[in-house]
UniProtKB/TrEMBL annotation:
Superkingdom per UniProt: Bacteria
Protein name as it appears in the record: GNAT family N-acetyltransferase
Domain N-acetyltransferase: 43-188
Pfam family, one: Acetyltransf_3
Annotated SUPFAM superfamilies: Acyl-CoA N-acyltransferases (Nat)
Protein species of origin: Streptomyces lavenduligriseus
Signal peptide residue numbers: none
Gene3D superfamilies to which the protein is assigned, alphabetical: 3.40.630.30
PROSITE patterns (UniProt xref): GNAT (PS51186)
């Protein structure tokens, strides 16, 4: 018996021209935590609803570990969130998540991600999200993918536009005790088929399908 017999998600791989996305092992998680401690964007901005930016480096690192452990422990086929590390040339550069509730019925996923600051501006954010969109639409049969970004998060919004997302309304949140507008975005399967700028290969998916609520 190996870990894959009990947790096949550990064998899932998404491979793009420059990246491998995979479920993190302990060394990957340590590298991701260190990346978070260094900061993932300019301290003057707060692109997340959770006040992660304003935490200390030690708090950010610990929260990364706890977040991944919590998502693993709470996994259910009807309510799941898959958080993968993005690895380039053996180096962890960031993390890409995809999740869903009642996926077999709703056929809708949501995504979220971040990159270490030294890896910004190289198109890796597009490549990471394209990988999980391929998993969602080509691998799992999704019909919709949703995302969101604050109005001043130009980089995230640019990735969404490049991948074919359309505007889907707004939400108002409180960030640093100030009102902030979150722009919702939606991508249909038909729109995704017209916007696939990155080739993606998948490994290990068949054994994982029941874990996503698919038989």
């Amino acid at each position: 018996m190996t870990l894959l017999n009990h947790w096949p998600l550990a064998g899932l791989r998404l491979i793009t021209p420059r990246l491998e996305l995979r479920s993190p092992d302990p060394d990957d998680l340590a590298a991701l935590a260190a990346l978070a401690a260094e900061g993932v964007h300019e301290p003057a901005v707060q692109p997340f609803t959770v006040a992660w930016t304003d935490a200390t480096p030690e708090q950010r690192a610990r929260s990364v570990l706890q977040y991944h452990w919590r998502r693993w422990g709470e996994w259910q086929p009807e309510n799941w969130e898959l958080n993968l590390v993005a690895v380039r040339d053996g180096v962890v550069v960031g993390t890409q998540g995809i999740g869903a509730r009642d996926f077999p019925v709703r056929r809708e996923v949501s995504t979220g991600s971040w990159l270490g600051r030294t890896h910004h501006g190289q198109g890796l954010g597009t490549e990471m999200r394209a990988a999980v969109l391929h998993l969602a639409f080509a691998g799992l049969g999704a019909q919709h993918a949703v995302s969101g970004a604050y109005a001043d998060n130009a980089a995230s919004l640019a990735v969404s536009r490049k991948l074919g997302y359309r505007e889907d309304g707004i939400e108002r949140h409180a960030v640093r005790a100030e009102p902030a507008v979150l722009r919702r975005l939606r991508l249909t399967a038909e729109q995704w088929q017209r916007h696939q700028p990155v080739s993606v290969e998948m490994e290990g998916l068949p054994d994982c399908l029941p874990w996503f609520g698919l038989v």
